[in-house]
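## retry 2 of 3
previous attempt timed out at serialization; input unchanged, resubmitting
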Amino acid sequence: MNTHKNARLTFHGRALLVRRIVEDGLRPIEAAQAMGVSARTAYKWLRRYRDQGDQGLTERSSRPKRCPHRLPEAKRQRIAALRRERRIYRDISRDVGTPVATVAHVLQRAGLNRLSALDPAPPIQRYEHDAPGDLLHLDIKKLGRFDRPGHRVTGSRQAGASRGAGWEYVHVAIDDHSRISWATIKPDETGASAWRALIAAVRYYARLGVRITRVLTDNGPCYKSRVFAKACRRLGIRHRRTKAYCPRTNGKAERLIQTALHEWAYARSYAHSDQRAAHLPHWVHHYNWHRPHASLDYNTPISRLGLDVNNLVGLHI
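## retry succeeded, writing output
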């Protein structure tokens, strides 16, 4: 441990002070005057020497043994884990619920304050199930309701505000193999809405000849509810959940939501949220039947089902 730059006594100075008292017989006040320190300091080092020997003359840490206001260890580890995902300070602060300065202090002590100190990001592992219906990705996106165009259209946050309009929740589903998607809007994200959305999705895919055997969701309360688990059992569907804090595991649903926001929710000016909701089925139809996908070699999702082209009119649902 480093000695303070203005310290009167080093380890050797303390040893000399104690030796003059113990061996030479000087009084502590006389030895203290000779070394240019107070008598209280001389008594302190003499007491430590008698208790611990030469070890008692070394520096001690000024760190308190107990700090009630210290950040819990679980949060410190959570901050470090998010940083290893290459998240920025402010993003980590919002996620953990701690000030940005605290996040910076924790990361600096952990040696993670610079991005160059982080390990390279792990390679992306892509996967695809063998047949339609083997895995259905589910997710929910919260959107604000409005009764007049908002700031994205008007450019003014005051003139376009729809105060008290509330929220609506877009429940989305996408088949892992074919990328055929489905979406509906519910008034909330409770377990009841989740299982109703699941049943509606299963019926939609059934009309296309696809039987759902497994679903993948995040760890949201609605997906962990008893009513959703009961619905899965009745439908004969195996329910899997993603690993905590790993949204990339459900990446196909996350990507679908981003595409829906860019091409449907924020793609045009809607007079009110009901008009936006009414346009959702049309966009889903376009997504499945007409929109080329890079992951499918720029074919449409419906092309992966191998449907009879002579019955396309009946299949347009």
